[in-house]
Amino acid sequence: MREIIQSLASIKEQFASSIPAFSSTADVEAARVRFLGKKGELTAVLRVMGGLTAEQRPIVGQQANEVRSFIEQSLAEKLSEIAALEASDRLKKQKIDVTLPGIMSQTGSRHPLTQVIDEICNIFLGLGYQIAEGPEVEFDEYAFERLRLPKGHPARDTQDTFYITDNILLRPQTSPVQVRVMEVSKPPIKIVCPGKVYRADTLDSTHSPIFHQIEGLVVDTNVTMGDLIGSLQLFAKKLFGDSTDIRLRPHHFPFTEPSCEVDISCWGCAGKGCRICKNEGWIEVLGAGMVHPEVLSGCGIDPEVYSGFAFGIGVERTAMGRFGIDDIRLLYENDMRFLRQFR
Ligand code: PHE
After folding, report:
1. Theoretical Cys-Cys bridge with 33: which of 37, 148, 154, 330, CB 3.0 to 4.6 Å?
2. Residue 175 CB–ligand 1 contact under 6 Å
3. Is the shortest distance between the CB of 253 and ligand 1 below 6 Å?
4. Is the CB of residue 211 below 6 angstroms from any atom belonging to ligand 1?
5. What pLDDT is attached to residue 20?
6. Same domain (yes/no): 82, 216
């Protein structure tokens, strides 16, 4: 029994003398295994207790418990002490310099064409129009024939486009949407249709084989040219400012009668003449007219009861004027240095 008591005392001593050397949580864990583990020193001593008498056992047991709780308690204290040190050490190493400049995330912005399309559509939405859409790949029938441009009509030349088959093509204007809307709805009709259009034009500073238009169509009883002019005046003032004027020039479109081209007083010089308007004082931005009675009747709308006006706004022209862009190609090149200017 004495031997066992001595072993316990020496275990306690050994443990106590090893404490100052603990410098990491790993050291503490290693000591726990060494002294208290299944194959540890204290366990080895307790294993021989079987050979003791009934009187000796409680005495040795008490001693052993004392040593065990001393070791456990010391380990726990040491562990929390070292863990706190390690944590503060880690924090010191991971110090964040909050004064460093941040990393800017790249945010996109709407393309100038999209900005102008949204702005124009919003103006007409405010006037009670609805947005309509139509296909870019269109039948010859809708793109031309039902707009009174039969095959071989000379007016097709100015709108020559890309053909997929003899009867399927890329629409050269948004006007086919007029027919598509009228054949499925009854007046009153009040729509704008923004979209891409295609023409067999060579790319230069003012032409692109792909560009955008916004078609407008109003059909109701008693719709007159006066309504068309009033609506376009309002549109021009909202988009370019209150002092903006419009000017109508007679023109010919097969699907409107009468037809006109509409100029807007130059936003650069208010009509005096400058670089933007090439000294004209006016800038052409759209074509318009009263929907031809044959186009109405072709869509099942009685021209004796109803009349309507239509217009087609050139988006690129409007955007170039608005932002002072002098080459249409800039709008399609996706050069970030260019696009960033329109945030
Ligand atoms: N579609 C014509 C063009 O592309 C514009 C237009 C639209 C004219 C509606 C009259 C009515 O030039």
Report:
1. 37
2. yes
3. yes
4. no
5. 85
6. no
| pLDDT value for 191 | 98
CATH of the domain at 127: 3.30.930.10
Together in a domain, 222 and 330: yes
Mean pLDDT, rounded, for 164-193: 96
The answer to whether residue 104 is domain-embedded is no
Look at residue 26 and tell me whether its pLDDT is greater than 90.
Answer: no
Probe residue for ligand 1, chosen from 173, 211, 248, 262 as the CB with the greatest number of ligand atoms within 8 Å: 173
For residue 55, the enclosing domain spans: 2-93
Interhelix angle 56-93/25-36, nearest 10 degrees: 170
The atom number, within ligand 1, closest to the CA of 259 reads 10
Query: Which atom from ligand 1 is nearest to the alpha carbon of 172?
Result: 4
| Secondary element (H or E) of residue 208 | none
Name the domain count of the chain.
Answer: 2
**Mutate-to-test residue for ligand 1 from 142, 146, 253, 317, highest number of ligand atoms within 8 A of CB:** 253
Q: 105 φ, ψ to 5°?
A: -90, 145
Angle (deg, nearest 10), helices 56-93 and 2-18 = 10
Is 288's C-beta closer than 6 angstroms to any atom of ligand 1? yes
Is the pLDDT at 333 greater than 90? The verdict is yes
User: What average pLDDT does range 211-228 have in this prediction?
Assistant: 97
**Ligand 1 and 173: CB distance under 6 A:** yes
Write 44-51 long-range contacts (CB < 8 A, 24+). Answer: 45/4, 45/7, 45/8, 45/11, 48/4, 49/4
The residues pairing with 259 across neighbouring beta strands, listed in sequence order, are 251, 289
Residue 166 pLDDT: 93
pLDDT of residue 5: 85
Residue 75 belongs to a domain: yes
Q: Which two tokens stand for residue 155?
A: 């007016």
Query: Can you tell me the mean pLDDT for 298-310?
Result: 97
Binding site membership of 312 for ligand 1 (Cβ less than 6 Å): yes
Instruction: Please indicate, yes or no, whether residues 222 and 322 belong to a single structural domain of this protein.
Output: yes
User: How many angstroms separate the alpha carbon of residue 96 from the centre of ligand 1?
Assistant: 62
